[in-house]
Design brief:
The complex is a heterodimer of chains A (516) and B (348).
Chain A lengths: L3 E5 L3 H12 L3 E5 L10 H4 L4 E4 L2 E9 L2 E8 L2 E7 L1 E4 L4 E4 L12 E3 H5 L1 H10 L2 E6 L7 H16 L4 E6 L9 H10 L3 E4 L6 E4 L5 E6 L6 E4 L3 E4 L1 E4 L3 H9 L26 E3 L9 H17 L12 E3 L9 H5 L5 E3 L3 E3 L9 H5 L5 E3 H6 L18 E6 L3 H10 L8 E6 L7 H10 L3 E6 L10 H18 L7 E5 L5 H18 L1
Parallel strand pairs in A: 1-2, 1-7, 2-3, 7-18, 9-16, 10-11, 10-16, 11-12, 23-24, 23-25, 25-26
Antiparallel strand pairs in A: 4-5, 5-6, 8-17, 13-14, 14-15, 19-22, 20-21
Chain B lengths: L12 E5 L3 H12 L3 E5 L27 H11 L3 E4 L2 E9 L1 E8 L2 E7 L1 E4 L3 E3 L15 E3 H11 L13 E8 L15 H15 L4 E5 L10 H11 L1 E3 L5 E4 L5 E7 L4 E6 L2 E6 L1 E3 L3 H8 L19 E3 L9 H23 L1
Parallel strand pairs in B: 1-2, 1-7, 2-3, 7-18, 9-16, 10-11, 10-16, 11-12
Antiparallel strand pairs in B: 4-5, 5-6, 8-17, 13-14, 14-15
Classes of the chains: A alpha/beta (516), B alpha/beta (348).
Bound molecules: flavin-adenine dinucleotide and iron/sulfur cluster (4 copies).
Chain lengths: 516, 348
């Protein structure tokens, strides 16, 4: 059966994704708020496998990868579709920055998009002589805007204009061939004036012209420019629709509001919810060329991650209905949004990442992950050098994605580790419950150490934070009861740090020995 | 624990040249589509440059991307569709619709037949010995790569001369990048981010360390750049000037001469250690591979961005120009899809 995918968006990136998916015989449904499709789509309109919904918003989404039920609204009509995957590629918006410079738009003070608009470009270029382009003076800019500013200036220069200034703080050239473009602009006679700690001052006259006063940072001379046209740069911001989509789908956003949390585990096209992908202008700021690459990556992510039956049920959470008191804790905290709320609560295994956050947090112990329970019962003979009774027994809870990898690395390069070390690998530190920690303290003669991902690097977003908070409360409990709280420590570590792992554990062992 | 369904031997095969993040990302996506991959790597190890980098978090992840490599490596080793050949050098390459490759491995020869090929042979770090910064002559002048390796392998930052934590460190940016005299008309994209993230890490280990950052322009990196940059400006001294040269002073301390625009004159300043932020230059095999495989290089010496989709040879990652780990992964995925589309077209 053909894969069915919902693509939300109506720009070049969305088009490229649809085109890529169609070439692999994926059935595509396009949904956009706009009242007509971007003209690019006309190339593929004929292909009967594409279903298009314009003036349509997403109302709700239930289910999991391989079986999402999407309810959409078109005016007052409701449309229900079942799809395997969802890709979000809404175009970003441009925000003019007039206000941040204290300027108002006029015929003489225009935005970068006004200048680039082919309809009025010729008039502007013909009728005016001197130009100042402002770039990244109030906020740090990016290579996309940088390229547009330099391209426009070069175009003006080739139009015969000779007085062109670009005023910038950090010139952003970390994009494909932008340094070469910068050299080309300088050769074309464009003057770059760079600011570091100082900033120019702006005054706008009755005629709408902007006067710019500044002190040159190198020569210390004062300058005043009143160009015929002042071009104000823009910032690139996420579509206002993304906030709604994030809520509807239960997706995390980054600090600017783009639809992918700032977490390297989400690269390249993933979100916190399995089967929902994000690309291009919904994911962040990049060049049109990079958006094309992202469209390719998102399409291949759909192809490679839609096999809903490719899992071991023993790795997935299961809610024991008899034990559940419907407190909804699990429903709230599941970072992958895969607990469904009907007459009873249940885990949709296709979307479950087996992180165990729910198992550790359920107040009634009503949730189990079969393979996870076994992992906590490692027999004593797994302890390195079980006969070395002279050394303290150390239990190290290691997140499988970070600390456990760092441990393997330390072993593979032959670094020394405590002799009485027992590694308990857990899918995510968030699965380590209070009971686990207390049991471990009871059973290990030496100490217990919990090693998690660094903050912001947890595959389940906040599993590490849960683990640290639990350890903190146990720590308080045991020190109130007179135990040494040094016997329970927490650290954060990345998967590529073998030496750091060995240092942390050897120091921990030393501290435990000093306690005795 | 993913149960892999065995669908028998893959019917189509792709050759991937280079086992850095870009090559690994491409190989994994292809393998998931049940395409067989012959991944050839000339060194003994997979992972490329990024596998040598350190984590720069100090409790909080700064999204440098270095740890993603571990995950990619693990998945590649587990995937039965990926055949890894390390320590291999390409001897012969023929493309008549079917690509025939012969490689030398130790003293033996191996041959592959593939339906498409992806060049992901990466970059070469700029070698700064000919710059007037005393690299290799002065102990305490090191590169950003040396520093990364020190952090990763020693879990510490020390001066090579006396193994002490340096009290003052200068970072010199754009070494070998944005340099007209070398005809290197590109920015390396990653070294501003790399240096500032390491600087933040050093400040968190020893807050009293005095860090000076010599630069031309600070490039945007990461999603929270504005906030990160604003806070770094409080913690370290930023000097917008690239030093002329470095001499050696007492106690193995490098002495930097630079133009101070505030004082409007040249001044000398002594630091305990200097880190050269060397950039990305075209891979050392680019020329050779370009001739062997008939794929053009651009005027900088990187592989041309435009895809040569008619011959079934694609390029990915930093073989095409400077990019971050994140972008190299994206690019590997894109190249994999291009190769798949090419194979599908050929089948029609
Ligand atoms: C100092 C420094 C710091 C950096 N810090 C960061 C950072 O913090 N964050 C970030 O995102 N990026 C960073 N980067 C960039 C990062 O290193 C690259 O993005 C990444 O390594 C690119 O991967 P790649 O696969 O394209 O190339 P490479 O890592 O160069 O891998 C290429 C592989 O191909 C192999 N190869 C080459 N030629 C052949 C051949 N002929 N046959 C077979 N195999 C071959 C090589 O041995 C190598 O294993 C940094 C770079 C430098 C120099
Ligand atoms: S946390 Fe436990 S008790 Fe609460 S709703 Fe979930 S399964 Fe039921
Ligand atoms: S194990 Fe994790 S992903 Fe699965 S239901 Fe529980 S919290 Fe959600
Ligand atoms: S992304 Fe970088 S800083 Fe973050 S955990 Fe990984 S290696 Fe460390
Ligand atoms: S990233 Fe920064 S240090 Fe590297 S070349 Fe570009 S401007 Fe220079």
């Amino acid at each position: 059966m053909a894969l069915k995918t919902l693509v939300i968006g109506n720009g070049s990136c969305a088009f490229d994704i649809v085109d890529n998916l169609l070439s692999k015989n994926v059935e595509v449904i396009i949904a956009t708020r706009d009242n007509s499709l971007h003209q690019k789509f006309s190339e593929i309109m004929g292909q009967n496998i594409t279903e298009i919904h314009t003036e349509t918003t997403i109302h709700s989404c239930t289910g999991a990868i391989g079986n999402f039920t999407i309810s959409m609204k078109n005016n007052n009509k409701s449309i229900i579709r079942i799809v395997d995957c969802i890709v979000i590629a809404e175009d970003s918006f441009r925000k003019t920055l007039f206000a941040s410079y204290g300027l108002s738009p006029s015929t003489k003070t225009i935005s970068l998009s006004d200048l680039d608009n082919p309809e009025n470009y010729k008039n502007i270029a013909d009728e005016n002589k001197s130009f100042v382009l402002l770039k990244g003076l109030k906020f740090e800019s990016n290579p996309v805007i940088s390229k547009e500013v330099m391209d426009s200036s070069i175009k003006l220069a080739s139009h015969g204009q000779s007085k062109i200034y670009i005023l910038t703080k950090n010139l952003k050239v970390a994009g494909n061939r932008l340094e070469a473009l910068y050299r080309k602009a300088k050769k074309a006679g464009i003057i770059f004036i760079k600011f570091t700690d100082s900033e120019p001052e702006f005054f706008q006259g009755e005629d709408g012209k902007t006067c710019i006063e500044f002190t040159d940072e190198v020569t210390k001379k004062n300058f005043s420019l009143t160009p015929d046209i002042t071009v104000v740069d823009e910032s690139i911001v996420p579509s206002d629709y993304l906030e709604t989509l994030a809520k509807t789908f239960g997706l995390n956003i980054d600090c600017s509001g783009f639809l992918q949390s700032d977490n390297v585990h989400r690269l390249p096209a993933y979100t916190n919810r399995k089967g929902i992908f994000v690309a291009g202008p919904s994911r962040g700021i990049s060049s049109p060329e990079d958006y094309k690459a992202e469209a390719g990556t998102a399409a291949i992510a759909v192809l490679n991650n839609s096999d809903k039956n490719n899992y071991d049920i023993k790795d997935k959470a299961y809610i024991n209905k008899g034990g559940c008191v419907r407190c909804l804790t699990c429903y709230r905290i599941c970072p992958h949004k895969t607990i469904s709320l009907n007459s009873t609560l249940s885990v949709m295994p296709e979307g479950c990442e087996g992180c165990g956050l729910c198992t550790a947090e359920c107040p009634k112990n009503a949730i189990t992950i079969e393979n996870l329970d076994h992992k906590f019962l490692i027999p004593d003979d797994k302890i390195q050098n079980a006969d070395s009774a002279s050394k303290p027994r150390i239990t190290a809870f290691c997140c499988s994605r970070s600390a456990a990898e760092a441990y393997k690395l330390a072993v593979s390069i032959g670094l020394t580790l405590p002799e009485g070390l027992k590694i308990v690998e857990v899918p995510c530190a968030g699965s380590i419950s209070l009971t686990h920690i207390l049991n471990s303290l009871k059973n290990s003669t030496g100490g217990t150490i919990i090693l998690t991902c660094h903050e912001g690097n947890c595959f389940s977003e906040k599993g590490n934070v849960f683990a640290h908070n639990r350890a903190k409360s146990v720590s308080k409990m045991i020190s109130d009861a007179g135990y040494k709280k040094e016997r329970l420590m927490t650290y954060t570590i990345a998967s590529n740090m073998g030496k750091e792992f060995s240092n942390i554990l050897n120091d921990f062992e030393k501290n435990i020995i000093d306690l005795e | 624990m993913i149960k892999r369904k065995h669908k028998g031997m893959p019917k189509k095969n792709v050759l991937v040249i280079g086992g850095g993040v870009a090559g690994l990302a491409a190989a994994l996506e292809l393998a998931e589509q049940e395409i067989g991959v012959d991944l050839i790597e000339k060194s003994e190890f997979l992972g490329g440059h990024a596998a040598r980098f350190s984590c720069k978090a100090s409790g909080e992840c700064v999204k440098c991307g270095a740890c993603i490599v571990v995950e990619k490596l693990k998945k590649s080793f587990l995937n039965p569709n990926i055949r890894i050949h390390t320590g291999c050098k390409i001897k012969k390459f023929e493309n008549n619709g079917i690509i025939k490759t012969r490689v030398d491995k130790e003293s033996s020869e191996i041959s592959f037949e593939s339906d498409a090929a992806i060049i992901a042979s990466g970059f070469k770090p700029f070698n700064p010995v000919n710059k007037p910064f005393g690299y290799k002559r002065f102990n305490n002048v090191i590169t950003n790569i040396d520093l990364e390796e020190m952090l990763k392998l020693e879990d510490d930052v020390v001066r090579p001369s006396d193994k002490r934590f340096p009290k003052s460190i200068a970072f010199i940016q754009c070494v070998g990048s944005r340099d007209e005299s070398l005809n290197h008309l590109w920015c390396s994209h990653v070294c501003c981010g790399s240096a500032l993230r390491v600087a933040k890490k050093i400040k968190s280990i020893k807050p009293e360390t005095e860090i000076t950052f010599f630069y031309i322009d600070v490039q945007t990196f990461g999603k929270d750049f504005q906030e990160f940059y604003d806070s770094m400006k409080q913690e370290i001294r930023m000097v917008r000037s690239i030093p002329g040269d470095i001499l050696i002073s007492d106690n193995d301390c490098p002495q930097i001469t630079f133009f101070d625009s505030e004082k409007n004159c040249s001044i000398d300043e002594i630091f305990e250690m200097v880190v050269l932020s060397i950039g990305l230059t075209p891979g050392e095999d680019n020329k050779n591979l370009s001739e062997l495989m008939d794929i053009k290089l651009d005027d900088s010496g990187f592989f041309k961005s435009g895809e040569n989709s008619s011959t079934g040879i694609f390029t990915a990652g930093t073989s095409r120009g400077p990019m971050s780990i994140e972008d190299a992964i994206l690019d590997g995925g894109r190249a994999a899809l291009e190769a798949i589309k090419y194979i599908d077209r050929k089948d029609l």
